[in-house]
Amino acid sequence: MKSNSATPSLANILIVDDVPDNLRVLSQVLLQQGYRVRKATNGQFALNSAQLMPPDLILLDVMMPELDGYEACRFLKADERTRDIPIIFITARDDIESKLMGFEVGGLDYITKPFDVQEVVVRVATQLKVSRLQKELQLQKEQLEQKNQQLEQEISDRITAQTELQNLNQELETKVEQRTQELRLRNQELISLQKKLEISLKKEQSLSEMKSQLITTISHEFRTPLTVIMTSNELIKYKIEKQQTQNLDRHLNRVNESVKRIEQILNSAIVLAQAESNLINFEPQILNLDLFTQQILEDWKSLENQSHPIKLSIKGNHPEIFKADPNFLKQILINLLTNAIRYSPEGGTINLELIYQPTEVIFKIRDRGIGIPESELDQVFDAFYRGSNADSISGTPGAGLGLTVVKRLVKLHQGTITLESILNQGTIVTLSLPVSEVKS
């Protein structure tokens, strides 16, 4: 059996795809890595090419007319000339069923579209290295079999050397087992490294997408309050110049409300960024929740209009020790109350229950607002989520960050938060925090 080291300068790779752009991109990436590249635009052409001159590795597109990638793979694995060629599938699908089908017909790995250059390079290099190690192992096995045959022949000719030959055979088998174990460990290391790389790439991609969306959303959300500030500023300037002082308070209030909205968006963005980067400063303290909650409502009344009365009820006995970060707990409650008011009809009462239990403290915030569609309940804590019915309310809807921030802050307290809602009937948010001491 021939051994091909399949180093980048020698490895021959066959790319099979019916889309010319895909062939061009993959060819360019692999040529830059020093590989020799051949191309095929359909499954039958790929079979003929591989049988005529077997490559070291095949990149095989799944979705092709006439002969798709799975069927082509079956033919390749059934042919003795091509059965040992490693095959990496190219697909736009990332579901489990597609992957299982690929592995069942003989594929070793997947590359998903759109292509990530680094991923393509790593996966190709990994499979070539594994293939090379397998070929080396097979060569050693054939060499061992040949030596064993020679030993058996010598044993039959010279019985007196039987013990010595058996010892030699045992020694050779031990070395092969050691080598096999080394290869197995190396292969496991490669698989582990590949998995870590995939996780790292996915996490980096997720963070990048979230940062990009965060910047876009903040930029969009700033436009309305900034426009209000600029317009009100011009009106105030004009009225002062004309010595017309009537309605100045109304314009100043609009400026203040816009500044508060910008501050709220910035605070939410900062908390999210710190939480995602594990840089958040979490400082739990012993709190008297009765006084803490009542003070929040008193502050709220002094800052907000009274169009939505908040009714507080307290049940049970306050635990001997309860710890939480006061700033974050205040932000959690204010965000939840703000949502309840924003999506409730004018004059609607907001019910806030504080319930003490032996192992946990529960806050329940109940409104009788527009509610959330049932099909969207599993999305409410996602960043930038806004209900499809949010436009039905008067005023400006939120930026879609409030509940995401709440979820992160509740997790810091080792608590849980759930949401129940019925469309056009209202929403109940249940916040549960452990009584046991929270680790800082």
* Major sheet: 5 strands, parallel
Number of helices: 10
Uncertain runs are: 1-5
Please identify the structural class as seen in this structure: alpha/beta
What report would you give on this structure?
The protein has 440 residues and is α/β, with parallel strands linked by helices. It is 54% helix and 15% strand. The chain is built from ten helices and twelve strands. The chain has helices spanning 20-32, 43-52, 69-78, 96-105, 117-157, 162-241, 248-276, 289-303, 326-342, 402-412, and strands at 12-16, 36-40, 57-61, 87-91, 109-112, 285-286, 310-315, 323-324, 350-356, 360-367, 416-422, 426-434. The strands form three sheets. It has a five-stranded parallel sheet with strand order 2-1-3-4-5, sandwiched between helices. A five-stranded mixed sheet has the order 7-9-10-12-11. A two-stranded antiparallel ribbon has the order 6-8. Strand 9 and strand 10 form a beta hairpin. The longest helix has 80 residues, at 162-241. It is elongated and about 115 Å long.
